[in-house]
Design brief:
It contains 10 helices and 14 strands. It has a single domain (4-325), classed as B-lactam Antibiotic, Isopenicillin N Synthase, Chain (Jelly Rolls), CATH 2.60.120.330. The mean pLDDT is 91. The chain is an alpha+beta fold.
């Protein structure tokens, strides 16, 4: 089972307690690239509001959900997509969802420059409370993610502001709400996959789940089921933190198996490098064992890649939603 760490001391603990939490997180990142956390301080009432509003939205007729379809957001790549519209490894996922990001006005420099994944969110009129819940959730997750990065920095022998100063001064913030409908009675083997094997792209992913299982992580000894506890947040690492830590930390493959017979809601939040940041290996760290574990799911090599994070993310998302990338003006 994945390790469970109480991170409350990162907010109100003394130096020794914070150091202990940092060490526990560091061990989990080195061994699994995944960790479950409690004591995170996120208001359970906010999570209930978010879950209730999400369930209400996904129960709406398709035509109503399509009023905020991603195609309406242009280069911002925000809004709703139907089951099968998102691809993993070139194959349709068994989920629908809504994409959100930092709420940016039309006069923001990146929006004016036409940068992909920048702009205003598309929020539904029903349920009316979803907008406030999403914006509050993203703010809470950003704060938590920065605390976790500060702890990892100290565990790596850096000062606690290292990531905030060098990588996340203006983080790329992305948030998704996913709904995995139950597989039909005549489901095929392909239908059982809500999402096939993949890794995330940036620094940290912070995931909230409802009580329905399905998430699996590729651990050192094979695939591991992740318990679906709504009070426990699941944190995993992305490609950029593996690259920056020279392989000491792992961007671990994971997948969602959709066989429970009931619907599932999940809420992944991504705290990624600033759009123009160039994530480079941290010189003070000794390289990890690049040969440890199986080959990457996509045959790629994050250690050979170099450039701006925004370019890396755009290239990845364009494979997830090729139909958006191919539209004029995107």
């Amino acid at each position: 089972m994945l390790p469970l760490v109480d991170v409350a001391a990162l907010t109100d603990g003394d130096a020794a307690a914070r150091s202990g939490v940092a060490a526990a997180l560091d061990q989990a990142c080195r061994r699994f690239g995944f960790v479950r956390i409690v004591g995170h301080g996120v208001d359970p009432g906010l999570r209930h509001r978010l879950t209730d509003d999400a369930a209400e939205f996904f129960a709406l007729p398709t035509a109503t959900k399509a009023e905020i379809a991603m195609e309406r957001a242009g280069r911002a790549w925000r809004g709703w997509f139907p089951v099968g519209a998102e691809l993993t490894s070139g194959r349709p996922d068994g989920k629908e969802g809504i994409y959100f990001g930092a709420e940016l006005a039309d006069d923001h420099l990146a929006v004016r420059a036409g940068a992909p994944l920048h702009g205003a969110n598309l929020f539904p009129t029903v349920p009316a409370g979803l907008r406030a819940a999403v914006l509050e959730w993203m703010e809470a997750m950003t704060s938590l993610g920065q605390r976790l990065l500060a702890a990892l920095a100290t565990a790596l022998g850096l000062d606690d502001a290292w990531f905030a100063r060098n990588v996340t001064a203006d983080p790329t913030v992305l948030f998704r709400i996913f709904h995995y409908p139950p597989a039909g009675e005549q489901a095929t083997e392909a239908d059982e996959w809500g999402v096939r094997e993949h890794t995330d792209y940036g620094l940290l992913t912070i995931l909230a789940q409802d009580g329905t299982g399905g998430l699996e992580v590729r651990g050192p000894s094979g695939w591991v089921d992740v318990p679906a506890d709504p009070d426990v947040l699941v944190v995993n690492l992305g490609d950029m933190i593996e690259r920056m830590t020279r392989g000491l930390y792992r961007s671990t493959p994971h997948r969602v198996r959709n066989t429970s017979g009931v619907g599932r809601l999940s809420f992944p939040f991504f705290l990624d490098p600033s759009w123009d940041a160039e994530p480079v290996p941290i010189e003070s760290l000794q390289p990890g064992d690049a040969s440890a574990g199986p080959p990457r799911w996509d045959g790629g090599d994050v250690h050979a890649w170099q450039g701006r994070y925004g370019d890396y993310l755009t290239a990845k998302v364009s494979k997830v939603f090729p139909q958006l990338m191919s539209r004029p003006g995107t």
